[in-house]
Structures
1.
Amino acid sequence: MPRPKSPDPKTDALRSVGALNPHPAAVKDEIFAGSDFFDRRDLVQVRYEMVRVCAPTADPSPRQQRASACPGPPTTSSVPSSSARASVAFCQEARPKGGHKLRAEVVEALRAARTQDPAVDAASLVELVKRRFGVEIHARTIERALKKKRS
């Protein structure tokens, strides 16, 4: 059944491009309060302001000083800090859900290695994936993938 149209065209537009913030009430920065320009529903804008306000400057503004609640890992660890262009790219980035590094071919290679040697440990499988596919995957991620049933 198609989703009913919302009465707000901006909400529909943000949803259509994947930029609708699923948790607008969680945005506490006062710049978004009562503003016609700043919109808590716009995920790209919220992320951009997060990067901008958390970026270190020589003379931090009062807003930056109050922003001591800048998000912790994994968000700040994945924030590029070298240029504004990288910051904007981060803001537009749609974060993948699930095991995006575990493509079907990677999982098949892991299962084949485990079938060949049932005693192979996760650390060895990490090295196998890095060597064969050029991807770094945490050992726990590999263990979870191997426990899942084939789909």
Note: Residues 104-116 form the longest helix (13 residues).
2.
Amino acid sequence: MHQEYKSFETERLLIQVTTELDASFILELINTPKWYQYMGDYKVYTYNDVLKYIYEGITVPLKKHGFSDFTVVRKTDGVKLGTCGLYNREGIEGVDLGFAFLPQFEKQGYAFESTSKLKEIAFEYFKLDKINSITTVGNENAKKLINRLGFMYLNKIRLPKNHREYLLYQLV
């Protein structure tokens, strides 16, 4: 596997590996109503909870696979907008591209811009031959973005230890 990818840029965005320095932002993002609605309650309520989440859910996979979660930052003012990443999720064969943004930064093209770049990195830098993406049945905005990125719907799935039904998409 390649050495881990630390950061990359687009015209408007800096997309950098999520670290402890992003803890307050991640805590805010994970506790938004939309996160609860579409991804569930991760039981991350305190600063110590989020540090554990970053270590176990981001740092460990980054060291193992070379990729994980990235924080999306607006270049003009340094504001953290959301996250996007490549994940090896239990229950999905292959790598999954995921994303989440604070509600006030949705519908401004940031998710498409960052995930388009991440898709490019996945194929060109990490040499992946396919990428998956999942979303919950009712998340229409995520479905639109996944389709716009060129993913094709495969089927419905359930992940281990999770009661939700997901739509599985793939890009080859």
Note: Strands lie at 7-9, 13-17, 69-74, 80-87, 96-101, 131-136, 152-158, 165-171.
3.
Amino acid sequence: MTGRIKLTKNGVKVSEENKPAIPYEYSCISPFDKSCSTYNLDGFQPTMDSKCPKFICYEAFGYIGEMVTCVDAMDCQMLQGMTTYYGDEGKDTKENDTILFLREMIPHHQNAVNMAKNFMATKESNCLDRTPAPRGEKRGPKCLLDPVVRGIINTQNSQIQAMLGLLETFDVAEEAQCEVILEASAHSPAKVSYLGAFVALLAGFELLGF
């Protein structure tokens, strides 16, 4: 978060200059991202990018149709982010192994965070009663998912920042994307999405010690 304080005297600005300078542009949340509770996914919709396939197969039953376009965009962002170069010139093999690991994990983690935030917006993890369950009773799925989803967002966001810092230490760009090549069958994209969701949930269960 960044901002400037403008001093006034008798209701008039002391200076019209915008100082200190802010070294980056503010990003605005698009209506699409607002509906998904995500960030910077607008251009990754299958209808907006020919390199983005539809990952989810569904028959439009229930309310899932409202979530499909969001998850399709999340998965495509991860797909393109993880389609990256192995290391940088001038680095030795071991350094490039680490650089590749970081470049792959950052978009992977971001996808998990986006999925968790999007799922929270459905209120299907909204646990109103946070007290321990009475002995012999089990919590409902909402109360079981609540700490999993929050754990994914908090822990993986922290890890993303740590990995970005490491890339900065290596003096390499966050990502160096190469051409996305899609040679999968018509049904395989859905499997990619389910795998991403499964990995994200496993990470959350690990946090809880399950």
Note: Residues 30-208 form one domain.
